[in-house]
Amino acid sequence: MKKQLFDLTALREGESLSFTVQDTPAFAVRKDGEVYAYANRCPHLGIPLEWQENQFLDSENELIQCSTHGALFLIETGECLSGPCSGDRLNALELVFEDGAAYLAEQS
After folding, report:
1. What is the pLDDT of residues 19-75, one digit of tens each?
2. Is residue 108 domain-resident?
């Protein structure tokens, strides 16, 4: 049975949203109408990325930013562009959307 992760109306364009998937903290970002989701874990130290609840983006809402070291990640791929984890990536989560809600995609 699928468990709803969040309602899509809770995630507006240019914003981020925390949620939990299988007891793991995660977050989603909506950019250009697309939703991208990642485990909430910096590849550098393994710590949560946000500085406040649902605050994962830089001041321009263009990149994901680690609150501890300021590392910057592309929203679309999770690739680290600058900071101590340059070249690493965030752990992407594959979501499916049904009836206005997000669910974790079934793994085959």
Report:
1. 999 899 999 999 999 999 999 999 988 899 998 999 999 999 999 999 998 999 999
2. no
Predicted structure pTM score: 0.93
Structural Rg of the chain based on CA atoms:
13
Q: Please tell me the total count of domains within the chain.
A: 1
Supply 18's token pair: 């925390």
CATH number at residue 83: 2.102.10.10
Instruction: Name the residue range of residue 51's domain.
Output: 4-103
- d(C-alpha 90, C-alpha 10), whole Å: 22
79-82: long-range contacts, CB 8 A cutoff, minimum separation 24? 80/43
